[in-house]
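Weekend entry, working from home. Most of the wet-lab plans are on hold until the incubator is repaired, so I used the time to fold the two sequences that have been sitting in the queue since the last round of cloning. Logging both here for the record. First:
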Amino acid sequence: MDLNLTEHGFLVNASDWNEAVAVKLAVLNQIALTPNHWEIILFMRDYYAQFNYLPNTRIFVKAISNKFGIEKGNSRYLQTLFPASPLKYACLLAGLPKPPTCL
């Protein structure tokens, strides 16, 4: 499966996303997906569909906390899933654009 990616590894066309694409992106980024990853990935897709924008990190963590509780809505937990950058990689694997606040 060939993916059309930006220079930062994000999908060029969000409409190309499906779960198989997410798995391929995870492999490319050396992330072994678990049900906990999928929970955040699908949450981000729903969030973007509802609000049509990507949150900054503080709002991202707060939104996760509101949806799943404080045990998952905290930076420490999210870092265990996406060590390099939780917001960036949650969006990348969800097939969403690169968040403007991410380097």
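Second, folded right after the first finished:
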Amino acid sequence: MGQYPEATRAREAGYSEEGMISYYAEKFQGRRTASGQRFDKNAMTAAHRSLPFGTKIEVTNLDNGKSVIVVVNDRGPYSRDRILDVSPAAARKLGLLGKGTIKASLVVQ
């Protein structure tokens, strides 16, 4: 499991990160996220280790240029080599489904 900060860190619009991302398995549908919301595989949501819940992030697939806006509503990812997990709906729009992981950029909106 990855290390999580004791507190979240708000970031100004324009803050960016780059790294590997993945997506949630559909088996999590309906389970509670760390924010208390129920996971909805059709919503445009994501898990990040330290950005506050409700933070909007533009995620761009660096291989194909496709991008989406997601809202942080969970903590994760649990894998140390990834910086974000997105919902299956976001993964579909990014061209991530079936690939497992992709290199992406994240920009706080």
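Plan for Monday: verify the second prediction. Strands lie at 16-23, 45-47, 56-61, 67-74, 82-86, 102-108.
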